[in-house]
Amino acid sequence: MSLSIILVHFLGTAIMLSDFLKKDYITVRAEVSDWRGAVEISGEKLVSHRVIEARYIQGMISAVEKLGPYIAIAPGIAIAHARPEDGVISHGIAVTTLTKAVNFGHEENDPIRVIVTLAASDHDSHIDAMGDLMDVLEKRLDDITAAETPDAVYAVFFPEYKHG
Q1: Which pLDDT value is given to residue 29?
Q2: Model pLDDT for residues 86-136, shown as the tens digit of each residue
Q3: Residue among 59, 23, 68 at smallest CA distance from 39
Q4: Helix, strand, coil shares of the chain as percentages rounded to 5?
Q5: How many domains does the chain have?
Q6: Is there a domain that residue 150 lies in?
Q7: Would residue 164 count as lying in a domain?
Q8: Position 149 in a domain
Q9: d(Cα 68, Cα 113) in Å, to the nearest integer?
């Protein structure tokens, strides 16, 4: 199934996965010292593109501090998110690869090599896209972490994308 699966937005508007994940929202080989730094750097990409407010980053960190490492959802993969009211401006997904994996404190899924930051304007519009995103992350994690440019990572998610 193609990653161009249509999301049904809460207003009935169709939103494509490519509307969530932009090439400009990808950071490769980020250097961080801990999980907080990983969440911050991935979130900062969405702040710089006015997808989230800066306070959303603190919301993501606070959620992990309060609830534990639940965002480490599969071996090597974390999906950071907070509530829409914590500062979502519009929808978006950032993908950040790390030069050195970090631990979130999750017994089964540490160490984490890829951080996905999710900004959803409601509680439902991203559900289908996340399934497709996870499918690619789980099947092609090594390709994603080996990629040297945002273009190369984007092409893993969207094989039809032609980059220079």
Answers
A1: 98
A2: 999 999 999 999 999 999 999 999 999 999 999 988 766 666 667 778 889
A3: 59
A4: 40, 25, 35
A5: 1
A6: yes
A7: no
A8: yes
A9: 18
DSSP strand pairing (14-16 vs 72-74)? unpaired
Residue 90 is which amino acid? S
What pLDDT, on a 0 to 100 scale, did the predictor assign at position 163?
64
So what's the pLDDT on residue 127?
64
Structural domain including 37 reads: 6-157
Helix (H) or strand (E) holding 21: strand 21-30
The answer to whether 38 touches 98, Cβ cutoff 8 Å, is yes
State yes or no: is 81 an active-site residue. yes
Cα torsion angle, 70, 75, 76, 81, sign: negative
Distance CA 24, CA 152 (A): 12
Residue type, 10: F
pTM of the model: 0.88
Residue tagged 């559900």 (tokens): 127
Instruction: Tell me which of 81, 91, 106, 126 is the catalytic residue.
Output: 81
